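Field guide to reading this record: the first block holds the primary sequence, the second block holds the structure written as discrete tokens, and the final block holds curator observations. Each block starts with its own label. This record concerns Substrate-binding domain-containing protein, catalogued under organism Teretinema zuelzerae.

BLOCK 1 — SEQUENCE
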Amino acid sequence: MRVRRSTVLFIVLLIATFWLILYSSFLLLRVASGAAAIGKIDPGEPMRWHLVMIGERIDSPFWQEVFAGALEICSERDAVVELVGPALDADRKDTDEYLQYAVAARPNGILAFVDDREESLQALEIAALRGIPVISLENDAFPANRQSFVGVSRYALGNLLGGLVYTCGGATGHALVLLDEESVRSSESIMLSAIQDAVSSYPEIRVTALDRNSMKDMSRDEFLRHRILNDPDLDVILCLTAEDTVLATQAVIELNQSSRISIIAFRESREILDYVRKGIIQAVVAVDARQMGRKAADAMLEYLETGHSNDFVITDLHVITADSLERSRQ
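BLOCK 2 — STRUCTURE
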């Protein structure tokens, strides 16, 4: 009788334990479900537009500013933009390769620095066939194959640089323009013509351009130093890249010619602005890079949303001197 009672008690305890476990599991499930509902992260809807920006050199302060401007607009307009392109230490140096990859990725739109290579033209033609609009930045190569251009007016830039040649060098002498040796750009001829127009009232100012063909077998640095030492009329060096600006500045300093030769630069960097403060570089023409990025992204999104955009969008230029830098600190 005692064994039977023990068996019944065991069965009752087993059933009670089962129901207790079942009820505890139910409570845990409710708590977990409630926690999941409270802590659930809503990823939201995917961005409507995907843009790719191709910079001439994405690790430069200028292109980082252009990208920052594009990000500002995209963050407000249901769009995402990514920056790709060659960097100083990249294996691929040419933007046309990145343009080809961007077209293959089929984004909604491409904002790109486009050089004058045949490969770039082919990539633009493929983009047009696939219905991918392209807005060119800075260099207006192949205008028939892009939707819009966003950048500076090369004529306005040349006119401004020509005015600085007179301001910094006076009404006589020789100004040497260092063209970008990395690529030949159709827009440079417009800029050079504008420089000549700006100094046309001063017939004793002579403007010549240094390009790759002028150097023969000499390096760029050697040729520049040769011109500095052997051209007594040279009183202005006009640089179109940050790299050439630093090269010319160092040559002028090392040859002890900073009191004779004025340097005018297009594009600023921290090092260049330090030289401006010291009075070694007389003036820098700077592009509003962030404005360029904003206007480019805005033009692309306008086209994607409405089917229309301006063909030519101009960004601002401003001149930086030692005086303007001093005023900005006050």
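BLOCK 3 — OBSERVATIONS
The longest helix spans residues 2-39.
The CA atoms of residues 162 and 195 lie 4 Å apart.
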